[in-house]
Each structure stands twice: as structure tokens, then as C-alpha cells.
Amino acid sequence: MTIQEAARRSGLSAHTLRYYERIGLIHSVDRNGSGHRDYDERDLEWLAFLTRLRSTGMSIADMCRYAQLLRAGAHTAEERRRMLERHREKVAARIAELTQDLSALDYKIKTYRETT
């Protein structure tokens, strides 16, 4: 599929896809006969995973490191797992903070409802 189609399906811009390729987050995408990028379903799955990592706060540098390790092969699986476990801990801590923030908001809303 074209870069425009991959952008539409992934929710990322064509500019972001080119940037991700340039910095090594995406492998060199295959090219079609006319030299245009030709994305496939595996590329979209990888983009979906990258989007999850980014939306949960993983830095671009850590995402690049993860992609580099993945391309290096199966012998890096342990390090990749550890990276994801550390990131998961950060996400869980952020969720706990947000839960406390939500409770504070709920309390304040309840107070206003009882007084108005």
C-alpha cells in the first residue's frame, strides 16, 4: 500500500512515517516498481505497536533502541522483555496517579452537587 494509505490506516501522518523510517523505527520499507514505498500488513502491525509505545509515554530514543534490538535477532529477547517490563512499571505508576487525580475530581464534583 502507498504511504498515504498506510498513513490513513495507521493514524499517523506520511511525514511521521518518513521520520520513523529515517530514524530507524521502521525498517527500510519495500519499494514498488516505480520506487514508491510499498507498506504491507506487517508494517501496519509494527506501526500500531509503535503507536501504543508512544501513547504510553515511551521516548523515541527507547523506541529506537527497542527496534534496534528487535532487528538484531532472537538473542536480544531478554533485553527487549526487560525494556517492556520497565516501561510497564512506569505506565502502571502513571495510571495510579491518574486514578488518584480522578478520585480528587470526583470528590470535588460530589461536593458541588451537594451544595448546589
Automatic annotation (TrEMBL):
InterPro entries in the cross-refs: DNA-bd_dom_put_sf, MerR-type_HTH_dom, MerR_fam
UniProt keyword list: Coiled coil, DNA-binding
Domain HTH merR-type: 1-69
Keyword DNA-binding part of the UniProt annotation: yes
SMART domains: HTH_MERR
Taxonomic superkingdom: Bacteria
Coiled-coil positions: 81-115
One matching Pfam family: MerR_1
Protein name, UniProt field: MerR family transcriptional regulator
